[in-house]
Give the backbone structure.
Amino acid sequence: MTPATPAAQHIGASHIEAFIASAFQKVGISVPEAQSIAQLMARADVNGSEGHGIFRLPQYIRRIKGGAVNIKPDIRIEREAAAMALVNGDNGMGHLVMKFAAEKAIEKAKTAGVAWVGAKWSNHAGPASLYASMPVAHNMIGLYLAVGNANHLPAWGGLDMLLSTNPIAIALPGEDEAPVILDMATTVAAYGKVKTKAQRGEMMPEGWMMDRQGNPLTDPNRSNEGFLLPIGGYKGYGLALMFGLLAGTLNGAAMGRDVVDFNADDTTPTNTGHCIVAINIEAFQPVAEFKKSVDVLVRDLRKSERLPGVDRIHIPGEGSHAARTDRVKNGVPMPPSLMAALDALAAELGIAPLGK
């Protein structure tokens, strides 16, 4: 008889946030900055982005201890014009750099109508939707691009790993409907999902990865033997390339061969590049009219005729909205493998275990 899989433990967002903040404070990050990072990481978990929330904490702590991340960065604007800025993150935690960049984009878009803010010398910052969503609270549209923190994608038809999952996120508000939020990698699956599969002892579905002979690769523990597959074949490869040029090369950040694999290297700064665009809806039309139009389209899509066997039409962002509604009430599910890793981290740092 197969033994039952241990149930996930549900932990409230406030406990997750407090644990993360304590961990960062133990390795020298200031209290306010540790709290800012913790809020964003906990928000990722509440929104259902398990591969980018507390799951990443042991890795972040390793890289800080290895000297790869600056715990006291001077995050600053290096270049600036009316509707743009280039942020130098001084190798600080990516969450801090992108919070700074998003706030600057929002501030500029209030007067310029639209603002593009790029960032260099940053680090992994969690899910793209965190930052694309920030302008929404100000009646703006947010667009975010980034260079991934490890190359797992070759050129279409090639084998050399010169590109990453280079994600895009776009967020815009509705009136009564939840915000429409697209958050996707340019690969079929983000590498964080591969890592969570490995930690949980699960296999990957066919179509996520391929080995160097062109065969499907489904064992996440053998991911270094192959590469991720782009969405839409050669079109996904093209998107990964262009997003990387905009978020990386344009900002003077790492791209191509210069990208550091932060999964394997705990000592080298990554010089991660991002960009955030804030678009002030009021510059184009009254906000209320736009939001009503979004609601009408969302409802038309949801009510549209479906193929046989299709239960419902989904709108980008609905999954995160449903996860958030459930997890705010019931807590974030933490699988035993993740709890064990976090317990080990707590013991290493001398802080109280999560959930205790």
Q: What stands out?
A: The mean pLDDT is 95. The first strand starts at residue 9 and ends at 11. Residues 190 and 285 are 36 Å apart (CA to CA).
